Amino acid sequence: MLTEDVLATAGIDAVAVKPTECDVSRAADLAVETITIDYEGREELPDTETLTALAEAKTVRVTTPVRADGFDPLGDDELWDRLPEAVGRVLVAGHPAYLTEAERERSVAPRLEAARRRAPDAWVGTESIERVALAVGGTQFELLSRSTERDLHALRAAGFDGSVAVYAPTVLSEDEDAILDAVGAYAARRQPVREALPDDADTDANAEGRAREVLSAAVRDYALVGDGTSVRSQVETLREAGADTVVGYPARGIEPFVE
Asked: What is the CATH number of the domain that holds 155?
């Protein structure tokens, strides 16, 4: 049983799990009310029985890429109806790695609008489609970045009164090597970080010199890292800026969330 202490101390509201990394049914034991399940290709989509059982214990949302076959509200929507009625959605454009070339060419805006009509309570992922996501409404599902705090302040100052959820890879550790092994490569893929890194630099605990300095700063822009108290402080800063829900993805697997 995953105890309440770790997540309660960190102040995280929800946990994201990846089907390729763990048995998603284990999320039923996590001491949070809401679970999101990342999309990693249709072959990795949990079966109906697993999702139904998990939804009996938690509020569950499945990431659904509106351009992908099976979830396309303007085309092949066979997988849409496979999801149990009790399972909510996080509508996204879809990561190119999990889309075919034909799927990547499909227009996002009309599909996102159609999907929102079908699932009015869906969260809407903003990554790479911020204006479109805002236009279709719903809880805005933001990916943590170095500009998130500033963007949230601006959004609220402009009068936006809708809900905002922030997704952040999370490393509950103060060990710098463990942090870099977990999220160094993730941060390194961001353009500002990629441009600042020396050519062919290691992006994990093996990073040295300038590369390590860049990565150590970057992981704190794009992830929540540190002990539970430190992560709670970062979460509270996001809430003060305007976030309603903080979704932590356990970047080292579920086990570090166990005390």
From this structure: 3.20.20.70
